[in-house]
Each structure stands twice: as C-alpha cells, then as structure tokens.
Specification:
binds adenosine-5'-diphosphate, 6-stranded parallel β-sheet, binds zinc ion, 821 residues, alpha/beta, 7-stranded parallel β-sheet, globular
Length: 821
C-alpha cells in the first residue's frame, strides 16, 4: 500500500511513501506520519489518501512511523486545505503548515528542549533509547531534532522525540512564544484497595492517636465516594481535602509517611469542561432584535449565508448569543470568528456568563501547547461547543459544525497577507460551513462593499437593524478643520480646541473617552533640520519611527531598530528633530493636558504580553483609566458604557490611501470608531480632526448613512471595473537584486498580456518597494466577475511554468494575492 503525504513545504505536489505492512491497517486519510524527505531531513506529514499506484522512475521510501492511533485531521479539513490552496494559488503544504499547531508537526529543524516541570509518572518506563534521549536532553538547553539525532547516533531519534513530546518530557521550543505550563493538580489517593477492609482497619489503627489524622482520613473517605457500592472511589484534590478536613499540610505529610496516602500529580486539560448545559442567562431580545432573529432563521431555512447589517450598538452580539444557544441545543458546534484578539477578551467575559465551559477560545496569544490542547479536544469530542477565535480558528477539526458567525465581516484583518496561504478567513469559513452543511451569519455595521452587493442581489439574505438597543442614539459627529484651527492658533499641539474642551468636560463629568490614531510609536517623522537627512531602514524602503519609551528608531515593516543618533550622521550637526504624532506621543500629550486623569494606551507595543489586551480593556471597563488611546485595536467591536467622547486625531492618513479600497477603508474605520461612543443612555460625540473637510466620506460618517455611502461607492467600482464587478489577483515578484526583480516582472507581465491583454496592469513598484532586503514588483490582473477563475488560475500557473526557467525569474520568488483587501 502507498500513501500520498502532505508535507509542510511550499511544493505543489504531495509525496508518495510506502506504508509498511504492519501499519497498513492503521494508516488512513488524516493520519500523522513521520517521513524522510531529502537526504537527512524528516518531517511530520499528513496522509491525504492511500492507493496502490507505484510511481515509476524513483525509489519510494517507507513511512518511518505512524504517530497517533487515529487521524489528527478530519477529512473535511483536508478538503478545505485543498480548496484554499487552489483558490489562493499556493501549495497545500503551505496551508497545512499554517493550519496545524507547531507542536503537532515537529520536523528535523524544530527546536526541542527539556521540560523542567516534568516528573516521571509511575506508569512510564522508558525504553533504553528513550532514557538515553531524556538523559541527554536534561543537560542541554535547546537543540534541533537533527542535532539530537547526530549527537546520539540513533537512527529513529525522530520517532523517540515524538513520543517524548507526546508525554511531555520534551517540548517544542518556539523561543518567542510564551511557555505553556501544563496545568497540574495534586491529588491524594489511599494506598489501599476499595474491597480491602483489613488494610483500611489497620489504617484507622495507625491514626487512632491523632484526632487530626483521623479526621483527614474520614474526610478523604467521604470525598472520594469510598462507601459507594457501585462506583470506584475517585482521587481527591489535595487542596480540597485540606480545606474540608480543616487540617494542615503537615498532617497530610504524616499520613503519607505512614503509607496511608500517596500524592499524584495529574495534568488536567485546561479546557476540560464538566459539560454543564448552557445556562438560561440570555437577555431577552428587544422587539426589533427578535424580528431580526426570526428573519435570520428564515434566511437559514433557505440555506443562505445571511448578512446582519446592524448599526453599532444595535445588539448584534445579543442576537449571536441567542443563535448560538439554539445551535448548542441542536447539539451542533459553533465557530464565532472575530477579527482581533482584543475582541475575544471582552466577548469572553460576556459569553462565559452565558455558556460557561462550553466556550473555548483560540488565538495566537496562546502558546502552541495550548493550541494543541484545543485541537485534540475537538478531535476527541462531538459535543456541542463554541469556538471563539481569530482567523486561524477556521482550521480547527470541527466535527459537527452547525453555525458559523463572522463578526465585523468587513475587517481586512481576516485576510492573511504574509506568508502564504494568503486567505480570507471570512471566505474560507463560508466554504468550511458549506462542507459541514452549517449556517453562516455575517455581521457588521459597515459591511464590505462586496458582501453588501451580494446581499442586495439576492446571493445572501439581508437582515437590517437600524436603531441602537433601547433607543440609544448614534453619536453626533463633528468634523474639525485642522487647517482653520492652526490658522487661528486655536489648537494646542495636535488637539483642536473643540475636542480639547469636550474631552475636559466629559472627564470632569466622570465619563471616559477613546482617542484613535492609526500610528504607533512616538513620532513617525525624524529629520535633520539642517540637511534633510532622515533615518531609513537598512532592510526596507521606509523611514524609521521614533519610539521614545525605548529611545530607539524602529522599522514597522521588519522590526529592525537602532538608537536615535545624537548628531546627524550626514552633516554632523546637533539638529535632528522629530515630527508627527504616534499613539505614544498622543498619550504623553493627553497626560500633560489632563493632569490627574489616567491615560492608557493600547497598540502593538503595549500588548506584546499574553494578558496585556485583557488588562488594558478590563481596567478601562472598571473605569480605572479615563482615556484609552490606541490604534485600530480600540476602534472595533468594544463595548464600554461610559464612553461619551471619541476623538480621531488625524483622519487624513485614512483618507489618502492610493488604492481602490481607500474610501471603503476610511468609512469603515471612522464609522466603527465613532460607534464606540454613547452606547448607553447619554449621547456621545465624535470629533474627527482633518484638513480635508470636504471629503465626501466624512459626510456619510457624519450622517451615519451606510447605504448612501454604499451607493456612491458601488458606482465608482462599476465605472472603474473594480470588485465586485471584477476579481483581482495581485502578482508579486521579489528578488534581492533590484534590477532582477524589475526584469523578471517585465517578462512575466509581457507573457501575461499575451493571454489576458488589457486585464494586466503594471508591473509597478508597490507603495513600499523593498521589505526585509527583498525588492518588490507587482502586477495586477483584473478579470471580469463572471469568468471562470479556475481557468484563469490554470492559465496563470501554466504561463509561469513556461518562463520559470528564465534566470531572472528563477532567482525571484513569485507569489499571488487573490482578492486583496
Ligand atoms: P453591537 O454588537 O451591535 O455593537 P452589542 O451587542 O454590543 O451591540 O450591544 C450594545 C449594548 O447593548 C451591550 O452592552 C449589550 O449588552 C446591550 N444589549 C443589547 N441587546 C440587549 C438585550 N436584548 N438585553 C440587554 N442588553 C442588551
Ligand atoms: Zn525594515
Ligand atoms: Zn544633517
């Protein structure tokens, strides 16, 4: 028997391996296997299918090991990987790589380290080789599996390492990821068999001179269910025993020394649930919400993807909760996608109250081990559960998916930009749902133009909520002309007069404010005022941003940083100055201006730690901070009752993007930030500071008129042949040599034009034309919406294959961005 194996590599095909006879019965689609690839490397692969067509012309290697008793990937998942690879023009191996947590796919290049918290369990007796690896690794810090292999000179080290990873002796070490400590609980067991009354009597004899010890023994018998005629006794949690018996650890120790008790540590899966049924803690829906709920159900009955277009604060989340409750009652699983980790934080609190342990969270701030835990839990259960997560949760092994909710469906962060697969989780989730026969609800106050178009043309069902919950009003939007402010010298730094006053007023009234600026760091512009020198990143074609807290210049594209020079490196004068406002600087200015009020900042720099999002959001929710300054992280989805003023520091950067989605992005962003204000009884006010007061987008935001905005935007799209009237594929060519990138792009574009003619635009240098040492060129392919994309993609691959051997193309990396956002 042969198996086609998917490897985590950017290669287009699968690879054929021989299934050793003894494994034939066990190897199935979705099985995890260890295989050798190339001379010395090995990888963990996933079996796609088995067959008996021996390939000709090369020797087929055997599978080295089967890693689990049953498959770790379900069949619909592999089907979805295939769909993603095909649709987004990448390899199925790249999808596999992104989909499965690292801990499940060790390879020879993975770093392994010894788990210091590990203790030898009683029932584990390592083989000689295992003992050897354990012993060896105890001494070492961090080694590649291939290094272990060559150091110990044992052939099947890979398999042994895998087994030790499984039991937890070794860990995959991802350096940057925070270490996961398996949650361990100490239990107390009685050293005596349930039926063995003689021994039990002897135990009582042993404790009869200590009241405390006797009490502890009796408490244990009670808690463990020892007396039950039908059930075996359960070990008792040490802490519980101590508290119920009211004794000290010393007493327990004495009992252990007497050989009456023993302690065992158990790793508990932190996502274990006690399967409590969902509690009826749902808030009743208001009239309009109930109507929307019914209309959504109607959409589902016609098995249509349904769009809930509800203004900010209309109570979409409440409707989702009712829908999820219904799905759980039908014994189905739910995927609830959100675009940002910061959103999972607030939702976790809200949903935990209703759904308790049936709610599982999945995102990148979890360590890989925690992600492996959730993966395995979903593999072994068909229980109704809710997964709340970001983009990558679409890859989890759902078994019984009944409902997919995609909140803030318009968000560009659903699209993965780098590395491949460059997929949109919204669209992938819709495909996933169709594979499971599951319902899909898209929710947004500002639907993407494509989605709303589909809803209006009948492809999706459309349900609208036009009022906020309990009649709260949408906030008043004030557009502030910063040019005028400066001319009349009314502004104080970046703060306009009206905004500054309103902010003071709201703070003094005991209310809170959110301030939005889409730039992190202190000052985005650093210039020598004498000679005009600006610091550029050594790897990228961008200027570096000054971060005051750490006193460095930083590249926001590749992360490169260096100190801010005291003297200008070009002219040697003491004349370097910083300009512009990032969130760090705004927080500092607000702090100075509103002395005595507390300012918190939420951006990439302040949320590197695992719990940082949560802490910042919770402190603000408890009103321990008064002003929350942040990047787009503060703009979406958050629900705070006490925020009355929202400020957009500089809308110009949003309005000026050279891209066909510029208006859409600006409208969404502004309407969403505005939506954070006045979500309860009091009316909110939003200040948008700009120098472009007559930009029409601002008018639509002022009137909260999405539909009008949509109507004008769809006309533009039609006139200039942009999505949804066309499909776009951006083709990127990157090369470490600028001239080669250039030539390769010209050759490829010429080739494309032979077939696609005027549908090909470019090549051109992208906005940032060099990133992390790679020079970039891009070509845009714009195809009519009705055309067969499958055909287009087949042609693309073929055209590329025809010219791939040309030296400039050969030294370049080509990748595709399908449906860019
Ligand atoms: P959206 O997601 O549409 O922006 P939310 O679901 O966050 O709106 O609702 C806004 C606020 O109104 C929340 O604080 C929410 O708890 C409250 N709310 C909405 N619907 C109800 C309801 N049916 N019962 C009680 N509170 C509700
Ligand atoms: Zn850089
Ligand atoms: Zn200078």
């Amino acid at each position: 028997m042969l198996a086609e194996v998917i490897l985590p590599l950017p290669l287009y095909s699968t690879f054929t391996y021989v299934v050793p006879e003894e494994l034939e019965e066990h190897v199935q689609p979705g099985s995890r296997v260890l295989v050798q690839f190339g001379k010395k490397k090995y990888y963990t692969g996933i079996v796609e299918y088995t067959h008996s067509n021996l390939p000709q012309g090369y020797e087929v290697k055997p599978i080295m090991a089967l890693l689990d008793a049953s498959p770790v990937v379900r069949y619909p998942q592999i089907k979805m990987w295939r769909w993603i690879a095909e649709y987004y023009l990448c390899s199925v191996g790249e999808v596999y790589k992104a989909a499965v947590p690292t801990g499940l796919k060790p390879e020879s290049e993975s770093y392994i380290s010894f788990n210091k918290d590990w203790e030898l369990p009683d029932d584990f007796s390592p083989t000689d080789h295992e003992a050897m690896v354990i012993h060896f690794m105890e001494e070492k810090k961090r080694l590649k599996i291939s290094e272990i292999e060559s150091a110990l000179k044992i052939k099947a080290a890979a398999k042994i390492v895998n087994r030790l990873l499984e039991i937890g002796v070794l860990e995959i070490d991802e350096k940057l990821v925070e270490k996961y400590k398996p949650k361990k609980v100490v239990y107390v067991e009685l050293c005596c068999h349930q039926k063995d009354n003689d021994t039990l009597h002897s135990f009582f004899d042993l404790v009869n001179r200590s009241r405390q010890q006797e009490k502890t023994l009796i408490a244990w018998l009670d808690l463990s269910g020892w007396m039950s005629p039908t059930k075996a006794p359960e070990p008792v949690e040490r802490e519980k025993l101590l508290s119920v018996a009211g004794t000290s650890p010393a007493v327990l120790r004495a009992l252990i020394d007497k050989g009456i008790f023993r302690q065992v540590k158990r790793v508990v899966n932190r996502f274990n649930t006690n399967d409590a049924p969902a509690s009826p803690l749902l808030s009743p829906l208001s009239g309009p919400q109930q109507d929307a709920f019914n209309a959504i159900k109607e959409g589902f009955r016609n098995s249509k993807v349904t769009l809930l277009h509800g203004v900010t604060g209309s109570g979409k989340t409440e409707i989702y909760s009712h829908l999820m409750n219904a799905a759980l009652a039908d014994q189905r699983q739910v995927l609830y996608l959100v675009p940002e980790i910061s959103l999972t934080t607030q939702l976790t609190d809200r949903l935990r109250k209703i759904f308790g342990d049936r709610l599982l969270i999945y995102h990148s701030k979890f360590s890989d081990n925690e992600r492996v835990d959730i993966w395995k839990r979903l593999l072994t259960t068909t229980q109704p559960l809710i997964i709340l997560g970001v983009r990558s949760s679409v890859f989890l092994p759902f078994s019984n998916l009944g409902l997919v909710i995609i909140d803030e469906e318009h968000e560009s962060s659903y699209k993965q930009y780098d590395p491949a697969p460059r997929y949109n989780a919204r669209d992938a989730a819709i495909v996933l749902a169709s594979m499971h026969g599951s319902n899909v609800l898209l929710g947004s106050a500002t639907p993407s133009i494509e989605t709303y178009y589909k809803a209006l043309t009948g492809k999706y069902a459309l349900v609208s909520l036009t009022r906020r919950f309990k009649g709260a009003e949408l906030p008043e939007v004030k557009i502030i002309d910063m040019r005028d402010q400066r001319k009349r010298k009314l502004n104080k730094g970046i703060l306009s007069d009206p905004f500054r006053k309103a902010l003071r007023h709201t703070l003094e009234e005991g209310q809170q404010a959110i301030v939005f600026q889409n730039r992190r760091g202190f000052a985005p512009v650093v210039v020598c005022t004498q000679c005009g020198w600006t610091p550029k990143c050594v790897n990228c074609d961008v200027s570096m941003v000054y971060h005051k807290n750490t006193d460095i210049l930083k590249c926001h594209y590749c992360g490169y940083s260096k100190p801010l020079p005291k003297l200008c490196p070009a002219c040697g004068q003491n004349s370097i100055e910083t300009f512009g406002y990032g969130t760090e600087r705004i927080a500092e200015e607000l702090h100075k201006e509103y002395d005595g009020f507390r300012v918190a900042r939420m951006d990439l720099d302040t949320t590197r730690n695992k719990d940082a999002h949560q802490e910042i959001i919770e402190e603000f929710a408890r009103h321990e901070t008064d002003i929350l300054v942040g990047t787009q992280m503060v703009s979406k989805g958050l629900d705070f009752g006490n925020v009355n003023v929202v400020g957009v520091i500089n809308a110009d950067t949003l309005l000026n993007f050279p891209d066909f989605r510029s208006n859409e992005r600006a409208y969404n962003m502004l309407e969403q930030v505005a939506g954070r204000a006045g979500r309860r009884e009091k009316n909110g006010t939003v200040f948008i500071q700009t120098t472009q007061i007559s930009n029409p987008v601002l008018d639509y935001v002022k009137n909260h008129n999405y539909v009008k905005f949509y109507e004008s935007e769809i006309e533009e799209r039609r006139n200039f042949a942009y999505p949804p009237f066309t499909k776009i594929i951006n083709i990127y060519i990157k090369n470490k040599d600028a001239a080669s990138a250039d030539i390769a792009a010209v050759i490829f574009a010429k080739k494309l034009r032979e077939v696609f003619g005027e549908r090909v635009l470019g090549p051109e240098k992208p906005f940032v034309s060099r990133v992390a040492l790679w020079y970039l060129q891009s070509i845009m392919l714009k195809v009519e919406a009705g055309a067969s994309m499958k055909k287009v993609k087949d042609i693309l691959r073929k055209l590329y294959a025809d010219i791939a051997g040309e030296p400039h193309l050969k030294s370049s990396i080509i990748y595709y961005d399908v449906d860019p956002v």
